[in-house]
Amino acid sequence: MSTMESVMAFLQSLQGLPAYGLLFGALAASGFGLPINEDILLLVAAALTLRGVMEPVPLIAVAWCGLLTADALVFHWGHRFGAPLLRHRAAQRVLPAARLAAMQERMRRWGPASIFAVRFMPGMRTALFFAAGSLRIPYRHLFVFDGAAALVELPLLVYGVRYVGGRWQDILAGVQRFQAVLIPAALLLAASAVLLFLWRRRGRPPRQ
Q1: pLDDT tens digits, 88-116
Q2: Which is it for the CA torsion 178, 180, 186, 189, positive or negative?
Q3: Residue 45's closest CA among 75, 21, 18, 12?
Q4: Domain ranges in the chain?
Q5: What is the Cα 51 distance to its own chain's centre?
Q6: CA distances from 58 to 23, 53, 152, 183 (A)
Q7: I want to staple 166 with a disulfide (CB 3.0 to 4.6 A). Which of 47, 51, 146, 148 is the partner?
Q8: By the 8 A CB rule, do 121 and 128 touch?
Q9: Helix H segments across the chain?
């Protein structure tokens, strides 16, 4: 049984505070490299609200804290060890220097608001958060934009699962099917946020 399957099986056997604690721990541990699929874990947790294992609002709050903890850890590794770490042969197998450079260039082009779009990119989040950290983007931008994206994602996911009666497999299949639409939409939102940020910044009076 894989780590992911073990966590999900254990989560379904718990109730109340222990379940919230395991969910937070599993999400946060993904920032240390634990092989956890955040999306599937959150879908399962949302389905468990139908059984009374957890409640929707506390689940959203705990998951929000867990996601930001994991993302901040990956961001921190990039911020602190980005360039030296990537010189190691093992690291370059996971994230080649050319791929990191391309990701960094995209983030320079879109600015810090690109972090908002990263939350909606399954399979690319870790590498992109690491790239953002290696660019020395301020931590406050991570918490503002990633936190805002998680506040959009989590209620939609939790109440979406409850709406379809806990058939989280249907939602997962739908996300995979329409991923080509969701990612450009997320990028469009990020671009709008960048333009708004630049417009407001241009309108500020110069500092004396």
Answers
A1: 665 556 566 676 667 667 777 777 778 88
A2: negative
A3: 12
A4: 3-203
A5: 26
A6: 11, 11, 15, 28
A7: 47
A8: yes
A9: 3-12, 17-29, 38-48, 56-86, 89-94, 97-110, 114-118, 125-134, 139-141, 147-163, 168-177, 179-203
